[in-house]
């Protein structure tokens, strides 16, 4: 099984992903680490990424997922995957499960304003919500809940 935590910046993907992976003894992958440097610089400047910008990133993430599953390894990936086409590209097979974290824009904005040391410019939040296509096939969770409660929901729902 490979769990992909999706949602806009600040929804808690990394926090929940690390916590979940640690509890399960699975490997955690931070999707942001797979962005080409040009993408990171663009986001730092407050420029939204295009579909074209995201293609090398999505291909790198797909390779990670394919390799892990081929080697019978389980993993948790934090990855915005805002559009259905991105999620389709990452859905290698039925072992890939999406968990979508969502919260009100004001909750997310507050989190981004408190966050330090991340390249994502908080000014991009509006474009993230504009780009977001709510997943049709995913476990949907309220990202305003405490991390421990969210991890518990994932584990109970997926029976892991």
Features of the shown structure:
160 residues, alpha/beta, Rossmann fold, 48% helix, globular
What is this structure's SSE topology?
Elements: E1 2-6, H1 13-24, E2 27-30, H2 37-44, H3 51-70, E3 75-78, H4 84-90, E4 96-102, H5 105-114, H6 125-131, E5 139-142, H7 147-158
Parallel strand pairs: 1-3, 1-4, 2-3, 4-5
Helix pairs in contact: 1-7
Give an overview of the whole structure.
This protein is of the alpha/beta class and 160 residues long. It has a single domain (2-158), classed as P-loop containing nucleotide triphosphate hydrolases (Rossmann fold, 3-Layer(aba) Sandwich). The protein has helices spanning 13-24, 37-44, 51-70, 84-90, 105-114, 125-131, 147-158, and strands at 2-6, 27-30, 75-78, 96-102, 139-142. Strands 2-3-1-4-5 form a five-stranded parallel beta sheet. The longest helix is centred in the middle third of the chain and has 20 residues, at 51-70. The model has no long low-confidence stretch (mean pLDDT 91).
